[in-house]
Amino acid sequence: MTIRETIQKIENGCFGPEHLSAVKAAYRAAVERGEFSTTEKDYEEGKQTLEGRLTEPQRSLLAESERNCEVNWTYAVKYGFSAGMFAGFQRYFASSEKANCTMEQLLEKSLFEAPGMERHREYHDRTIRCLEISEELEKALTEDLREHLISVDCAWSERIHFSATHEFYLGFRVAMNIIETVMPATAQRLIPDTLMLEYHLGMIDSVDRMEGRRRT
């Protein structure tokens, strides 16, 4: 087995069905907390309505779009993890400005915005195809069905984005763990970076906001 094959085997093991199921479970937990409950409720209603009122060719297009979204979701999980790990190591080794290793730069602008998305060729092509399908369906649908189509698209966008940021944090923490294992004496200087990321992701909150909620 070559080194590249060994690396691929390790990657396949890390991002196998068990881990992907765990990411989906994390999203479901967020839904149960109310973070995406409206989005998911609208998705279920929209999907059910569209399945009952679309023509067979239109249902096939919708199914194609969702299959593309599912593949993009898996890609976003893997890329988000890699970007997070890269950010962790870059923050450790950077000697000056760290602005270029933020989640905004490495994930938001690189995967979800143009022109960064274009370098992820297959992901980009699937995204464009989903847009083409939505545009084609919107032209043929009534206004109420277009709203349901938008609900389906929005749900997938939320799922993909949540999972990518979830994995970015996990990759970042893996990098921190490796640094702490190899260089325990210097790992503590990255605590502010970890806390800032956790704050940005809404995992922790400021004292002012916590006190404000207690007063309301």
Question: What does this protein structure show overall?
Answer:
The protein has nine helices and no strands. It has helices at residues 3-14, 17-32, 37-53, 56-93, 103-112, 121-140, 143-182, 191-200, 207-215.
How many angstroms separate the termini?
62 Å
Beta-strand share of residues: under 5%
**Overall pLDDT confidence:** 91
Rg, nearest Å: 20 Å
**N to C succession of SSEs:** HHHHHHHHH
Low-confidence stretches: none
The SS-based structural class is: mainly alpha
* Number of strand elements: 0
Specify the helix fraction band: over 70%
Sheet having the most strands: none
Number of helices: 9
Shape: globular
Secondary structure elements and pairings:
Blueprint: H1 3-14, H2 17-32, H3 37-53, H4 56-93, H5 103-112, H6 121-140, H7 143-182, H8 191-200, H9 207-215
Features:
single chain, 216 residues, mainly alpha, 80% helix, 0% strand, globular
What's the quick description here?
This protein has 216 residues and is mostly helical. It has 9 helices and no strands.
